[in-house]
Amino acid sequence: xxxxxxxxxxxxxxxxxxxxxxxxxxxxxxxxxxxxxxxxxxxxxxxxxxxxxxxxxxx
Length: 59
Description:
This protein has 59 residues and is mostly helical. It has helices spanning 2-26, 32-58.
């Protein structure tokens, strides 16, 4: 069950980062480096989510 809670937390964080990216992109003078940083974090979390799901499928 702890793994489910961790997966839920990662999924929530992924959604928060998606919202932060969208909000940053709405600004006419958005900070490209900030957007790229947020995208890297989002991708890292997506990879973690996928790794957990793959591990669950193999067990």
